[in-house]
Structure formats: C-alpha cells, structure tokens
C-alpha cells in the first residue's frame, strides 16, 4: 500500500507493519506471570487481561493492527527535564511525557487513515493501554524477544512500540524476526537485583524500574543498596546490550555528585503539591511525591550524600518513610 508507506514516512516512522489480529502467542506466558505474582503492585495488569486476550473489547470488530516503532534515543522532542542532573531512565530524560507527543502523532495518523479508508475504523494506543504490544511487534517482524524481555532488533531497543487497531481485514504472511541474542547473557549478568530470573522472564518485584516507579512500598533492606543511584527507572539491561552499544555507543550516564545532590535536595524540600506542579506532563509525574522522596532518600544514602541528612531526618515521623529514614541514618555515613 504505497499511500500507507507515504503516510508513515511523513511522520518519520520507518519501522511499521500492518498485520491481522490473532490470538497473542504470549498470552499463556502472561497469565502464568500474573499467577506467579511477578507483577507486584501493578494490579491493573490483572484488569487488563481480558482486553489483551480480546482486542474487540477495545475496538468492536477489530481485525488488524498497524504496529510501529518510535525511537526515543536520542529524544525526538528535546526539552530539558527539571531534574536534568538526576539518574533517570533515558526515555524519561525529557520534560515532555512521551505519551502526550506519541498519542498526538497516533491520532493524526488515525485521522488520515479514516480519510483513506472511510468504511473502516482506526484507534491508536501507546503503552499505557491494555495491549500486548511486544507480542504484536514480534509477530510483525519488527524485532525479537531479548533475554531481558524487551523487543530488540539490530538497531537496538531504545524505542516505544505503538499500535493502531482497525476494523479493516488484512492478509499478511507472518514474518518472524530471527533471534540474534545467541549465547549472550550480558543483560542477565548486569542486573544488580537479579530481576531477570530466567530467559525472557522478569520478576518486576526485583526490577529497579518497578521499585522506583510502580511499587507502592519501600524496597527491602537487601534491595535498597542495589538500586544504586537510580532515581526513576533503569536502563542497565539495555545499555549493556551489544546491539544498543553497536548502534548508539556507550549510553551510560555520567553524573555530577554535586549537581545530583541539588536535585535530591529540591525533591526533599519541596511539598508533594510543588513536585506535582513542577513535574506535571513529564514522565516523572508517574511517581507520586512521596515516591520521589522515597527514591531520593535511597539514592542519597547509597551515594553517601551526608549533607542531605538534615532534610532526610525531617521525614522521621512520615507514615510511609519513617523506617526508611532510620535505615538512611544508619547507612549514609
């Protein structure tokens, strides 16, 4: 479909595929993962199961999906994050939440598709919707499942996966991307918390990204030191991947202890309302104020930033942070 190719080229999207919607090949794996409680506090994943199993719950009479990859590194919408000196995942190193930009782009594409195919419906999603996006990307031949459970290809894995469901019937032969991980286990070996419990299986309860974003509690004393300097998210299992290194070079971040300390001080001395207002529409808004303070205390302690102890001690009577403060006072020196 030349007109489809042109449409995605206009939006600077090179990797896409229109495929029939069929039963997800990873559905049983997903159910087992949920049954083993590896999703931790992310109860919404249980609620998402019916929608992931039956796409027609999201779009009645859905028959196909256009799946595409949108690179986030280097970030296409460069705009410095308020906490620009902090150790956050690469996808979040921008002041604008990708969900907003990407959803706007998807909506524009859907509008054009409705004009091209007036008898059909199109609805698009980012990763915040209940879609098994990696399953679709794999079946579309856009990459393979890495041992860290990310979809990757020879250009690496620093991309978002988006999809557009359609009522239009499509015939397309399955295209399976060869797996080029081979015997490499760098992602498994590099994970500080051993969250990659086996090939392609992540125990979210051990993952630094989960512990700093989704978790509603404070990490165990065993896990706290392993979080290291990560304030929000983690890139370790991707940054060590040879395919990312080959395409992007070294993506590990260089941190200034002095500047990072100022960012952490700002978090610890700001009210939750001030944090919410300053971080509104940024990726970091996903973590509530108390979670950012939780993370800041852990990072400050791991980095031995003793100057922040007076600010940390102010939370000694905090309902959720009091035990963490006690731990910090014992370990920050």
Question: What is the number of E strands?
Answer: 8
Secondary-structure element series: HEHHEHEHEEEHEEHHHHHHHHH
Q: Give the fraction of residues assigned to helices.
A: 25-40%
Structural class category: alpha+beta
Distance between the termini: 64 Å
Spatial order of strands in the largest sheet: 1-2-6-3
Which value, in Å, is the CA radius of gyration?
A: 21 Å
- Segments where pLDDT lies below 50 for 5+ residues? none
Overall structural domain count: 2
Strand content: 5-15%
Given the C-alpha coordinates, what overall shape results? Answer: globular
Main sheet characteristics: 4 strands, antiparallel
Mean pLDDT: 94
Helical element count? 15
What features would you describe in this structure?
- It is built from 15 helices and 8 strands.
- By secondary structure, it is α+β, with helices and mostly antiparallel strands.
- It has 2 domains: 2-86 and 94-166, no CATH class; 190-331, no CATH class.
- The chain has a 4-stranded antiparallel beta sheet, with helices on both faces.
- A hairpin with a 5-residue loop joins strand 4 and strand 5.
Task: Tell me the layout of helices and strands.
Elements lengths: L1 H9 L5 E5 L6 H9 L8 H10 L10 E8 L26 H19 L5 E4 L7 H7 L4 E2 L5 E2 L6 E8 L19 H5 L5 E3 L2 E2 L5 H7 L9 H4 L8 H4 L2 H7 L8 H13 L2 H7 L10 H14 L6 H5 L8 H10 L2
Antiparallel strand pairs: 1-2, 2-6, 3-6, 4-5, 7-8
Helix pairs in contact: 11-13, 13-15
Short synopsis of the structure:
The protein has 333 residues and is α+β, with helices and mostly antiparallel strands.
